Amino acid sequence: MLDERDLRAVREIAEEVTTNVVVRLMPDIVAKVTTRIIDERVPEIIDERVPKIIDERVPKIIDRLVPGMIKKSVHDSEVMLLDEMERFDKKNERKFAEIQKDQRELKELYRMIKNEQETITMMLKQLQDHEVRITRLETQTA
Fold first, then answer.
1. Residue 126's Cα: distance from chain center in Å?
2. What is the 3-state secondary structure (H, E, C) of 31-88?
3. Average pLDDT in the 19-31 region?
4. pTM
């Protein structure tokens, strides 16, 4: 269905789209993760441990969540692109089938015209032969 070049192009487009999405979403992700950590883990009284907790845990959480999000985004993009390519492929197959049908009809017409042309050529040759014979007979009888 799709050759290696098409799959490579789809993969590159999906990676580019996903990278752009992740770059745009990264500040939001960091803010949400940081807010969640602060809300859930930080004691009521903020002390000197808060920056240390944030510095230690946020990168680990980001490292754990972002690859999954990227894979899901790439997968969703690939599925969308493959569906679109499949739809386009089906549309082109229908057009190609119509063209083949038209081509078959044209071949039939060509064969018919060719046969008619050959028949006309043979009849003209016979007519010329008859004219030659009639001319000879006229000269013999005269």
1. 59
2. HHHHHHHHHHHCCCCCCCHHHHHHHHHHHHHHHHHHHHHHHHHHHHHHHHHHHHHHHH
3. 65
4. 0.42
